[in-house]
Amino acid sequence: MKTVVIGLGNPILSDDSVGIKVAREIERFKIQNSKLKINIIEAYAGGLRLMDELIGYDRAIIIDAMVTGNVKPGSFKVLPLSSLVTTRNISCTHDTNILTAIEFGKMLGLKLPDDITIIGIEAKDVETFAEELTDDVHKAVTIVASKIVDEIIYKKGLCSEKCLDN
Amino acid sequence: MSANKRITIDPITRLEGHGKIEIFLNDEGDVANTYFQVPELRGFEQFCVGRLAEDMPVITNRICGVCPEAHHMASVKALDMLFAVEPPSAAKKIRELLYMAFYVTDHTTHFYALGGPDFIVGPDAPPSERNILGVIKKVGLDIGKQVIDCRARNHYVIKMLGGRGIHPAAGQPGGWSKPVTEEERKEIEQIAKDNIDFALFSLKAFDDIVLKNSNYLDLVTSDIYLHKTYYMGTVDEKNRVNFYDGMIRVVDPEGKEFVKYHPSEYYQHIAEHVESWTYLKYPYLKKVGWKGFVDGIDSGVYAASPLSRLNVSDSMATPLAQEHFEKMYETFGSKKINGRYQPIHHRLATHWARLIELLYAAEHMLELATDPEITSPEVRKIPEGIKGIGIGSVEAPRGTLTHHYESDERGVLTKVNMIVGTTNNYAPMTMSIKRAAEKLIQKGKIVEEGILNRIEMAFRLYDPCLSCATHSLPGKMPMIVNIRNQDGEVIRTFKRD
């Protein structure tokens, strides 16, 4: 099964970069562990650009920052793909949402993964330019990265609702 | 204000930035004011100060996940000036070649995924259909393939020339880090030809679907989003549209040249107005002055958009784009005065202007790809001094983009200022939103049907990029409208989806 792990975010926008930091952490695991046969990608935008990155894979794990305001920063959760639906043309109006982009890609016969998992990590600050994460969010990086690695190598399963607190 | 009714359209948090629209009603239930609020990304200047100036082309292109190429170009141009170095001619052409590929993909995406659905699927179609899928259902699967192919081949050119996909890394003060080989040139030539075909096809689709449909044509030419403001854009020595380089030209609402200046003089011409209710600053023409969110020759409000660029220009620099340019101005009944068309003030024409620009970018890409100099190995002049101040600008798809850096004698940054494309259009967007709201809300009666879409259309045409490049997963509904009574209590809520 051809698997891609995508860290999504802006590397210089504080906690928005948490997905990218997790991807880099998994890259470090990969160097040490030859069993980890995956591609790791850092991506910076949703919609069609994200869909472009998914082409050719059977399985994708996407890690992104999440701002729900309902849970502690650094909490993480496996989310349905439908949670990514909400870029509804209103503000940064350059693209379409990822669900629409995937449906569009499938309509055109592009090979897109049937199995897409989204891991959202609750962010505290996504509006300040900084390369560092806030403390609580930083703690989530290794935990999420190792859970993904364990799932891919040992099929341990990704976290469910119980994973909310890191 | 507290006695006024308040309607809030709040998209909360979304994948690519978020904004909030507030509509205030007066005692009669008519629209008194509309506020378009955007949470500002903070501290970019502090983030950059103390870094090496030459890192800026790769740092600033991270500001935005959508137009990194524009930031990269404005940044390297600012560095040319900061390091007092003139890039070799071939380097400028390579930069411009990459930039044309970027324009083709950006304008294509906007038309088919965003602006197009309003027309091709219809302004009153349900939101779930007003997207690229709706477009494809209407115009056919083959078009969808063409859109994907167009994006893919131009991203390929950006990666080939820029050294990296999405976030180019090849720009250097004094030039470009690698020349173009003959094999690459040939590939790009073919891609440019395909782009021209695609642009012509897109204009034909616009013609068939929008212009030949009297309902849509009426919408485009109606006064629903009509604002007589000043316009800004970059022009070449013959006053033709140029995306990469030239002078900034501003025309007044009558179409007369108000001022033409070098981008490095921007602070003599542009000032920023601050409102207490938003982080946004509203740029305006200093010499006219800020008179509020109003039209007219006495108001310093200006727009910088595809339509604005065409409005400030005497003509297009390529033949096919010129034909379509003339057709657009003739369709709107614009008269020629002193050899140039009077501006079009109908903001929905921006979508048409964007397609004309798409064609220009494709044609110019072919000119550059067949320029004998494009494969010259002379692509870099090594800087030898430091001027300490560097200002560079390009036309980003969303408006004039200016980077301004200052450094000490080592090239360590001491000051950074930017006016991004969208910023230029904050005031016109606010005005267009108000215009839409006024049509939809009168004497306390609110037209619920399509209200979100009509208001979205008002600013979507400017293709705004607000807090670019945040991808934070949302936890709430994408858009909520709250209607509040005089005490601020929510008396009714309706939301999208």
Explain the overall architecture.
The complex is a heterodimer of chains A (166) and B (497). Chain A has a single domain, classed as 3-Layer(aba) Sandwich (Rossmann fold). Chain A is globular and about 45 Å long. Chain A is 32% helix and 19% strand. The model of chain A is unreliable at 86-93 (pLDDT under 50). Chain A is built from four helices and five strands, in the order E-H-E-H-E-E-H-E-H. With 166 residues, chain A is α/β, with parallel strands linked by helices. By secondary structure, chain B is an alpha+beta fold. Chain B has one domain (44-428): Cytochrome-c3 Hydrogenase, chain B (Orthogonal Bundle). Chain B is 39% helix and 19% strand. Chain B is built from 14 helices and 21 strands. Chain B has helices at residues 44-48, 56-60, 68-82, 89-120, 132-139, 141-162, 182-211, 214-221, 266-269, 306-312, 319-331, 350-369, 426-440, 451-460; strands at residues 6-10, 20-25, 31-37, 171-172, 175-176, 230-235, 247-251, 257-261, 270-274, 281-285, 302-303, 336-337, 340-341, 389-396, 399-407, 413-419, 441-442, 445-446, 473-474, 480-484, 490-495. A five-stranded antiparallel sheet of chain B has the order 3-2-1-20-21, covered by helices on one side. In chain B, a hairpin with a 6-residue loop joins strand 9 (270-274) and strand 10. In chain B, helix 6 packs antiparallel against helix 7 (182-211). The radius of gyration of chain B is 22 Å and the shape is globular. Chain B starts with 5 loop residues before the first strand and ends with a strand. The chains are: A alpha/beta (166), B alpha+beta (497). Strand 3 (59-67) of chain A pairs parallel with strand 19 of chain B, so a sheet runs across the interface.
